[in-house]
Amino acid sequence: MPQHQRADARRNYARILAVAEREVAAHGADASLERIARVAGVGSATVRRHFPGRGALLEAVFRERIESLCARAVASTDAVDARAALLEWLDGFTEYAASARGMAEALAQDRLVEPEQVSACSVKLEGAVEPLLRRAAESGAVAPDVTAADLLALVTGIALATERHADPAAEGRRLLDLTVRGISPTG
After folding, report:
1. DSSP string of 140-166?
2. Which of 39, 112, 128, 170 is most buried, with most CB under 10 Å away?
3. C-alpha–C-alpha distance, residues 125 and 45, integer Å
């Protein structure tokens, strides 16, 4: 969002994006633009002025969520309990992955997010969670050979496995719990 826009336009953009994120979480990539406009308290023309199509809105939601997950990982790096902080981050990432059902496919179909961009997001997420994972491993809470890429792959797999489940978030949390038991050192 360009900073040279008026304050009300920036507020509208932020409100639309926040509502869109909730609607995508609830209804997937097919969330209604008209409903997003109505819930955000703006006209559909305002939504289209900021986001010329569904793809542009989905891309913005995707980018915003990745930034938020990275910021959350960085903020948790110095937590007293590294294991709890890592598990909290993984839970948030799993919840996001479950709620974003259909978004990656829709973005890929519209060619709004190229494979290189998805790779760049993965690299960004890995870089953000790596210090948190390293601290958890140093404290003995996670096996030392677990990598950030491993965690992203596991959560991605969980999201794919639960995509058509009646309650993808609950099933994702259940599978994450099983996964955590698998990456934790025995002992």
Report:
1. TSS-TT--HHHHHHHHHHHHHHHTTSS
2. 128
3. 34
